[in-house]
Amino acid sequence: MANSYTFSRRYFFYGSLLAGAIPAGGFGSVASLTRLGYKSPNEKLNIASIAAGGKAESDIRGCARYGDNIVALCDPDAARAARTFQAYPNVPKYTDFRKMLDKEEKNIDAVIIACPDFMHGIAAMWCIERGKHVYVQKPLTRTVWEARMLTEAARKYKVATQMGNQGYCQEGPRVCAEMIWSGAIGDVTEVHAWTNRPIWKQGVNAPPKEDPIPETLDWDAWLGIAEKRPFSFEYLPFSWRGWYDFGCGALGDMACHVLGAPNMALLLGFPPTSVECIKKDPPGRNDYMFPMKSTIRFEFPARGSMPPLKLYWHDGVQGLPAEYWPEDLPKDERLGDLPRGAMMGRGAAPQVPAAKPPKPPAPSQTQVAPDPYAAALNERIRPYNTPANSGVLYIGTKGYMTTGEYGGSPRIVPAAKAEGYQPPTPILPRSQETYADWIQSCKSGIPAASNFDVAGPFTEWIVMGCIACRVEGKLEWNSEKMQFTNNREANRYVKPTFRKGWPFSSRG
User: In the structure, what pLDDT confidence band is assigned to residue 42 with cuts at 50, 70 and 90?
Assistant: First the structure.
């Protein structure tokens, strides 16, 4: 009947499968409220940030609007951090996070980590080992090994964690999961996800030219664990994402967003059995950078009653290429993100405290010198500066679904098959927006939506795709041993190398 929905046996199976695994307040195992470092909801957190410019600027604003204290800032790039530094003129500032933690440890409850990908792991570990709660921007780490280590450390030290893939806190992925679990499109056997990123330079198979180090940059602190090398504007302020040593390409930038709903809905905490880059442009081996375009195939085994799954990641494309769309799906319904204003399920309204939170300090009126990287940034992204275009196509045994970038607008397609469809009764807990979710976790012990028990395994399989871009052929994965069983070269990239003086653990 058009106005009713009959719950399938499959729906009840998945509901019981998840019972106990996802508590009412968040994802993962419920934490004890007496853990080290948890505060009363009425107390303010003292929050530090490792990075203050770029994405860190909005992360700091996002946390500060709930009334908690920003007590220390670290960024080796003073020019990029200038606006945030001015907003907090009396807060201690550092270029090396190790020095900040040594000096300010007693003043800090929690830390935002939004530096480049290659430094996420070490920065988070040093904080976790000191009992500090951490909010780590996506991707959680640059390598599989680091993701595994952070997941284990978060459990050991009992801290509140969150990866900054904000879609995980929104309504869309939950609706998408519930629709799939209800059997709306049958068993999902294939998924295609796409993005138009990168919007920065990639695919150049040569080292960059050397440039003078700006006076506002502590280049040695910025390099951190990486081998020493000459400074270049080809790395900063944004294009580090495209270099193997520093970033994770389009996968690191967008996969934790675009693939969040599939990860939740299809129970992809189970590791893949293989990964392969089946197409890239430019073709062939590159010793320095990710390609401008790639198609990567992940193969997952059966998970409970869910069948084996092939998941395809397509980057550098303006929409999913035509050859991957089902022939019986009309062209005008081959969409990921919908036009602004037409989105549904993009996310529930943020839950904020009843009292209006204070605004962060207003920026100083003092004039800031022009950012020395502005011209470099504009030049790097100018040729690729196009509107966001991302989405996911789910192919089931009984039909198709698509969603937008953050799992928004989950919808059965073609629309004719969705006529009269009513989404199932919600079974997943709804969440607050990402910063409120993490702050609540810090104060209550209730796990955040993208805590490391979720984000760690998720990141592991995403960054396996980065390895596939570097090594030819299908890579067979053994998760327990954390190694590829058929390719020695690929195993070189499972764990990073650490420059002398920059150990992954500060505890020896």
Answer: confident
